[in-house]
Amino acid sequence: MYAAHFGLRELPFGITPDTSFFFGSPRSQEALNTLLVAARSGEGFIKITGEVGTGKTLLCRKFMATLGDDFVTAYIPNPLLEPRTLMLALADELGLVLEREVDQHQLLKSITHRLVALAGQDKRVLLCLDEAQAIPVESLEALRLLTNLETEKRKLLQIVLFGQPELNRKLALQSIRQLAQRITFHYHLGPLGRDDLDFYVAHRLRVAGYPGARLFSRRAIDRLYRASGGIPRLVNILAHKALMLCYGQGRQQVEAAHVNAAARDTIATQRSFWRWLVGAAMASTAAGIAWTFCTMSLINKMLQDLDARGKARSEEMPHEIQPVPRGGAPMPALRVAAIAAAVMVLAMGATARYVLPLKGKTYDVQPLPPSQPVPQAPVTVAEVAPPAAPAAATEPVAADTAPAATASTGDTAAAPATTSKPPRTASAHRGAAKPAAGTRLPATPRAVTPAASGPALAGEGRIETSNQASENAYRRALGSLQDGRVSEAIAGLQAVLRNNPKHEAARQTLVGLLIEAKREDEAMVQLQQALTLDPRQPAMAMLLARLQIERGQPGIDTLLRTLPYASGKGEYHAFLGGALQRQGRYREAADQYQTALRSAPDNAVWWMGLGLALQAEKRNAEAADALRRASSLGTLNPELQAFVERKLAQVSPQ
């Protein structure tokens, strides 16, 4: 495809693990060192964990290729096998020829004899299990029993587990605690840093035969890091697609725009940090719809660019591959923008109601009455509004307006009591309500009495100017973010919040960027400021508490302060129950789980949490009922189901 265009011998960014492309970044080299040293020690289990796409399989293959002739390796890439099948797979890897109907005793005896024979030849046997988080608990226990085989000097079998972080949770189960104690070496493989990613891209291009100096511009590398999060597999996918687009345009250097287009074409990079929160699904859906209107497939774009340049196809591209024209007439740009904006407004509105309500649901505010004749004097209209709760009187209106209006709620509440804005907003909201005869409309200067209405209008103009300035600054920050200028976007969002601390969208975006940039301390400050301004934000409180817990702090005080505003939110009560349980406050934890279960009585995980809290309180009969309910719902995964059954046996009367 593009190999000849860039002077490459082969494609540099495949996702099949190829040890010739292994890049010894500080983290991957440290992980390889851990494996090699641990393998020479000949003791216990070795564990390597890492997120999806961080290069665990490539590391495993590089590790096995690096071992000398004194090692015999058995590799099982898919260990989702019950104990007997796993033993058969090990026997096959060790080259054993078994009878067709071999029983369990003969199977274990054959494996043992083979291991002893290899030890007699001064060979070390290593079993490498990829995707180890998928191993059933019973199979892990069978492997542990195999490692009991040993000579006077060393173990006959050493096991290396490569898995996702879920493996840690599985190893924490009480039933296999003996295995966890035998893990003598472990390492967590993290993503690439920004500078490491630059070297990683250059390394793969050099291995593929690239003769030039820099194929990806520095801004393209910045955007590549931002879009991939430093995950090598995503880096490869995005770099490959960016090269396709660059080739299609006849360019010799990949720019940030190519990476941006590649990111839009890649599902995994479309996730935002707010997937932690319920509102993320709506925002992602809106973004997906916008892309549906505005983009074609990346491959088709490359083909169209080639045809537009009259460029001959490479021999690797069959003649049957043809560019597809856009179906029908292109949609006008204004219409596209209007549809995308409408979808985003709906998504943001729904997200704000469920995830980050500006005022919560604590006001007993009645809907505005039907339109009635308005008294002749505008000042009199403003004075008859209830002076005790001016913000509450406008609340139903603010809930149905656009996000920009929501952002200005604080400024509206601060307006003088004599302003005529509430009657004007109500009339605009109803739309069809016809003003009474003689009513002076603020939008018509000739109908306004200068002496009575001038100050109010001046105040309104000042408020609108301030809000518009905040919105413009917010949009500029989003533009910087879209172009990959993350630091500039963060600075812009911080400036927005200095001028308008109640700009919810700016704060949400800033918190997400700070956490993704590993600046958790600053993110926590922003969340604390948001909750100080308005504690009626349960989702913000949960996020702050989560960050606090991850940093070793309890997070309970944060959750308790916002608890009065979390009525009916089962997730909030269950989260608080878990935090209390970790601090040994079992009675309070049980209360929170019970409150959560009133909103979702079929949540098996919450029933399990309640049962564990009650068991810690020595309330065994109630604990047994809760655990029994968790088990009977049938929605727990096999490991949790087995865990619940064991706990149930402990608390049930004999």
Oligomer: single chain
Shape: flat
Strand order of the largest sheet: 2-3-4-1-5
CATH architecture of the largest domain: 3-Layer(aba) Sandwich
Q: How many distinct beta strands?
A: 5
Q: In CATH terms, what is the fold-level topology of the largest domain?
A: Rossmann fold
Task: Write a structural description.
This protein has 654 residues and is mainly alpha-helical. The chain has four domains: 26-189, Rossmann fold (3-Layer(aba) Sandwich); 194-308, Helicase, Ruva Protein, domain 3 (Orthogonal Bundle), CATH 1.10.8; 451-552, Alpha Horseshoe (Serine Threonine Protein Phosphatase 5, Tetratricopeptide repeat); 567-654, Tetratricopeptide repeat domain (Serine Threonine Protein Phosphatase 5, Tetratricopeptide repeat, Alpha Horseshoe), CATH 1.25.40. The protein contains 31 helices and five strands. The chain has helices at residues 3-6, 26-41, 56-66, 83-93, 104-120, 137-146, 166-171, 177-181, 194-207, 218-228, 232-248, 256-264, 280-294, 298-308, 333-354, 378-383, 390-399, 403-407, 409-413, 421-430, 450-482, 486-499, 504-516, 520-533, 538-550, 556-562, 570-582, 586-599, 604-616, 620-632, 638-651; strands at residues 45-50, 71-76, 124-129, 158-163, 183-189. It has a five-stranded parallel β-sheet with strand order 2-3-4-1-5, sandwiched between helices. Strand 3 (124-129), helix 6 and strand 4 (158-163) form a beta-alpha-beta unit. Helix 22 runs antiparallel to helix 23 (504-516) and helix 27 (570-582) packs parallel to helix 29 (604-616). The chain is flat, with a radius of gyration of 32 Å. It starts with a helix and ends with a helix. Residues 270-296, 318-322 and 326-464 have low confidence and may be disordered.
